[in-house]
Amino acid sequence: MKIESSDVHEAVIIAPAELNFLVYCHKIRSKESFPFLNQIHLKEHQKEFALEVIRSEWDAVCSQIAKRNEYVMESHYIHSAAYRIFPGCHDESVQEVIHSFEAFWFHLPGFGYQGVLQTLMVAAIDRIALYTNTDNVIIALFDEPHFIETRKVGRFGEIVPITSYL
After folding, report:
1. The pairing of beta strand 152-153 with beta strand 12-14
2. Engineered SS bond to 8: which of 26, 32, 69, 129, CB 3.0-4.6 Å?
């Protein structure tokens, strides 16, 4: 498919650690297999509570991004959100989730933040330009957020999991 210049829109790609952490926690809650993913043993009522908190946190983070009309990483967010999502779990288990996410997201070359941006910028730039239509911000995630209903963050941008492009 040939892309016409009138079909291409400039876009900014952001990969919020906060939203990606919520996807990571959802994968833990769902016991999905993923590299660097540590499991927490949750009872059924804890799983339901975790899902409610993840959805609530998602809405709060998206609202804040849309309200500010920009993304600013909240350095304390991951730590505090982990304890809200997994209350009653052993402190060591929650700390392990935090550390494994931080290693995956911030420190491993080719994974996490770097991998998400690299995949979107190199492998699928033509499809991204078409996909974004008129939105000017792509909110990149490392995997599909199965717990949300919409891929829009207000008028701010569009949620794009890189699994859509692999």
Report:
1. unpaired
2. 129
CA angle 94, 38, 114 (to 5 degrees): 100
* Domains in the chain, number: 1
Long-range contacts of the stretch 128-131 (C-beta < 8 A, 24+): 128/11, 128/13, 128/160, 128/165, 129/3, 129/7, 129/8, 129/9, 129/11, 130/3, 130/7, 130/8, 131/158, 131/160
Rg (CA), the chain: 16
Sheet (strand 12-14) strand order: 12-14, 137-141, 157-161, 152-153
Total-model pTM? 0.80
Contact criterion met (CB below 8 Å) for 138 and 124: no
Q: What is the 3-state secondary structure (H, E, C) of 105-153?
A: HHHCCCCHHHHHHHHHHHHCHHHHHHHHCCCCEEEEECCCCCCCCCCEE
Residue 163 burial (10 A CB sphere; 0-12, 13-18, 19+):
exposed
Domain with 130, as residue range(s), is 5-165
CA distance readout (Å), 107 to 21, 73, 110: 14, 16, 9
